[in-house]
Design a protein that fits this description.
Elongation Factor Tu (Ef-tu), domain 3; 6-stranded antiparallel beta barrel; 17 strands; 5-stranded parallel beta sheet; about 25% helix; alpha/beta; 8 helices; EC 2.8.1.13; 3 domains; Rossmann fold
Length: about 400
């Protein structure tokens, strides 16, 4: 089988290529050049240069064909511009999820197929399996990686059946230490290379500095809301339906300037996110202050003190039906149906017990326990045991 590997210059994709070669496949390595601007990275030079050199050395060591494809224009259009737009709206995007959906498993995959590939492989800690239904149709399953500490199935939560049918994740059965050990045994140059940090394919960046390329700083007020605010002492209403209850539990509290006290200034609400505590420059508190809301129209940030601050927690989140994605279309809920699942809305977040609900007007994830810092724009994903079956953008 001919397999094109997205060779990124890291240890995970390097071992992916090696394992496929050992399995007897015809392996071709492609390096995606997705970013050219070194001005916003925290390294001395744009990391893609070092990464492409490392990828080339791995390909030479394994004796497999290697080429670089420039996807920087596409990446800017589909990922970077999307990020700027989302932050401008006061939402919290996840570029890594979008990168997999829009770049790696869309344009990159199509490029690989045009080269005659049967499959595309990446160095994700995830697994793909398949079964056949009663009609003889093959159904593909996106499973968590065996290494619980490195499981990256969340980043793949927007993939569909067609994409999964062409995807391979050879290191999904391994732990990170095992991957590094294989790389050392093969004397691959990437064996002890640090894991990449920061934005997908861009590198480690100062996010405010990065966003300031297009989003203009503008001074605004930081307003502290207090735990004894009347906003948190309202009686819970009697609900006429489950949908009405979930609307209430997932609601965004409409804070006003008069609800709290001005305690500082910031340089733009669009540079911050819900749950953030760093970079606010707030002192004089026993515990850290966390952002609980942003008024984008008036450029105001609302904060509350402490991890237990009531405005930081919600029992449910809402997803518009237009933003709903099922990896397993055969499990899609009909109106009025619900299902017990495990769910998360951040990478590395421990899976939480939850129930998903489908209604004609919206989709809800209701958690057994209140969750901290649920932010609009994040991706929520839900699982049955270790299989990721669906996801959606939080509204």
């Amino acid at each position: 089988m001919k397999v094109v590997v997205g060779l990124s210059g890291g240890v995970d994709s390097s071992v992916t290529a090696y394992l496929l070669q050992q399995q007897g496949h015809e392996v071709v390595a492609l390096f995606m050049r997705n970013w050219n601007d070194a001005s916003v990275t925290l390294e001395d030079e744009c990391p893609w240069i070092e990464d492409s050199n490392d990828a080339l050395m791995v390909a030479q060591k394994l004796g497999i064909p290697f080429q670089v494809i420039d996807m920087s224009d596409l990446y800017k259009e589909r990922i970077v511009d999307y990020m700027f737009d989302e932050y401008q709206k006061g939402r919290t995007p996840n570029p890594d999820v979008l990168c997999n959906r829009e770049v790696k498993f869309d344009v990159f995959m199509k490029t690989a197929m045009s080269l005659g590939a049967d499959k595309v492989a990446t160095g994700h800690y995830a697994r793909v399996d398949s079964t056949t239904d009663e009609n003889g149709k093959e159904i593909f399953h996106l499973l968590a990686g065996k290494d619980n500490n490195k499981d990256q199935s969340y980043f793949l939560c927007q993939l569909n059946q067609d994409q999964l049918s062409k995807a391979l994740f050879p290191i999904g059965e391994l732990t990170k230490p095992q991957v590094r050990e294989i790389a050392r045994e093969m004397e691959l140059v990437t064996a002890d290379k640090k894991d990449s940090q920061g934005l997908c394919f861009i590198g480690k960046v100062s996010l405010p500095q990065f966003l300031q390329q297009q989003l203009v700083p503008k001074e605004g007020e930081i307003i502290e809301i207090f735990k004894d605010s009347p906003l948190f002492s309202q009686e819970i209403p009697v609900f006429s339906s489950k949908e009405e209850e979930l609307e209430f539990l997932s609601r965004k509290i409409d804070y006003k300037k008069s609800d709290g006290k001005v305690i500082g200034k910031h340089q733009g609400a669009q540079f911050f996110t819900i749950g953030q505590s760093k970079g606010l420059g707030i002192g004089g508190h026993k515990e850290s202050c966390f952002i609980v809301s942003r008024d984008m129209e008036n450029n105001i940030i609302f904060v509350g003190e402490g991890h237990s601050f009531p405005g930081l927690h919600k029992k449910a989140l809402k997803i518009d039906n237009t933003e709903l994605h099922w990896v397993r279309e055969d499990l899609r809920l009909k109106n009025g149906e619900s299902m017990e699942v495990m769910a998360r809305f951040r990478y590395r977040q421990e899976l939480q017990k939850a129930t998903i609900h489908q209604f004609e007007n919206a989709f809800f994830v209701e958690f057994d326990e209140p969750q901290s810092a649920i932010a609009e724009g994040q991706f929520a994903s839900w699982y049955l045991e270790d299989e990721l079956i669906g996801s959606g953008v939080i509204s």
